[in-house]
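Why should sequence recovery work at all? Because a backbone constrains its sequence more than one might expect. Tight turns favour small or flexible residues, buried strands favour hydrophobic ones, and helices have their own preferences. The token representation captures these environments compactly. In the example below, the structure is given first.
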């Protein structure tokens, strides 16, 4: 088994590689050997197999999962879901099929509650993704009211979700809503939380460092615009202590705010924040480009607001 997988992995031609893997998969299914099936899954999810190949093979695997005996099918399905979980962003469709197969298996065994729970997970994930997507579209049109309605719906589905990309998208949209509603201090805290994400790899996607800096800049901007008070002062102090902050273009403004100094118009010019009779905030919103995975791949726009 190991030698067959190793030989397939070194095939250069992608079409031949896929056909060879399909032949191995068919042999594994025919054997009904759980150990061999697990080895195949592990190999598909390893770095030896290109993503475009592993997606296609796992799609075939999920569709043919019913060829296994019921007991083996149950064990392999749960094992596959557990192994895929760290990279679930890359295999959403395959996970969906495996869960549907599990639901069918539970129904055939008259395990109605388990079947319903498996289907509920599928439905909740779909509804969560749509709510977040609709909210994002409304936000693109600066419609915080309708966006908030769908984000509120999403919040009820969020507690049981382990979909890290959707959770992050939800957080971005929620911070954006607070910003549009001029709840600046709350928005600042949300933006700052996003900027502090430690895990930079979600599935096969990497969170852009520049995007995190933009989230930090958004946190600073919102804090400056927030009403004065003890909490605002604490947030300002926290932002000022962040070692990343000194690299931002908005750094001189926060220095002035903290020192209670008067700001010369030139300060705004050099930090890319224009001035007019009222304060105009220049906010470049570019949120976590590489992790949107089909729901929204990038929020990359200029937003001008007058206050």
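From this structural description, the recovered sequence reads:
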């Amino acid at each position: 088994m190991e030698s067959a997988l190793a030989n397939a992995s070194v095939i250069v031609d992608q079409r031949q590689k896929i056909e060879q893997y399909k032949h191995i998969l068919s042999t594994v299914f025919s054997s009904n050997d759980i150990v061999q099936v697990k080895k195949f899954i592990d190999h598909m999810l390893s770095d030896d197999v290109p993503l475009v190949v592993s997606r296609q093979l796992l799609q075939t695997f999920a569709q043919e999962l019913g060829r296994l005996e019921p007991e083996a099918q149950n064990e392999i399905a749960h094992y596959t879901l557990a192994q895929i979980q760290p990279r679930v962003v890359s295999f959403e469709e395959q996970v969906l099929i495996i869960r549907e197969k599990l639901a069918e298996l539970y129904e055939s065994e008259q395990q109605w509650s388990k079947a319903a729970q498996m289907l509920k997970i599928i439905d909740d994930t779909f509804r969560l993704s749509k709510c977040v997507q609709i909210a994002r579209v409304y936000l693109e049109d600066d419609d915080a009211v309708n966006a908030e309605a769908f984000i509120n719906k999403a919040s009820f589905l969020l507690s049981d979700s382990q979909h890290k990309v959707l959770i992050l998208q939800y957080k971005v949209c929620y911070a954006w809503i607070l910003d549009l509603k001029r709840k600046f201090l709350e928005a600042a805290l949300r933006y700052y939380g996003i900027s502090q994400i430690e895990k930079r790899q979600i599935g096969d996607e990497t969170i852009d460092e520049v995007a995190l800096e933009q989230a930090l800049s958004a946190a600073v901007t919102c804090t400056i615009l927030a009403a004065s008070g003890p909490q605002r002062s604490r947030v300002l102090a926290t932002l000022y202590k962040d070692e990343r902050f000194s690299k931002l273009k908005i750094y001189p403004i926060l220095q002035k705010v903290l020192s209670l100094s008067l700001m010369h118009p030139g300060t705004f010019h050099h930090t890319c924040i224009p001035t007019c009779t009222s304060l105009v905030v220049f906010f470049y919103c570019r949120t976590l480009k590489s992790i949107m995975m089909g729901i929204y791949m990038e929020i990359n726009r200029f937003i001008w607001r007058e206050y």
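A few observations help interpret the result. Confidence is low (pLDDT under 50) at residues 261-307.
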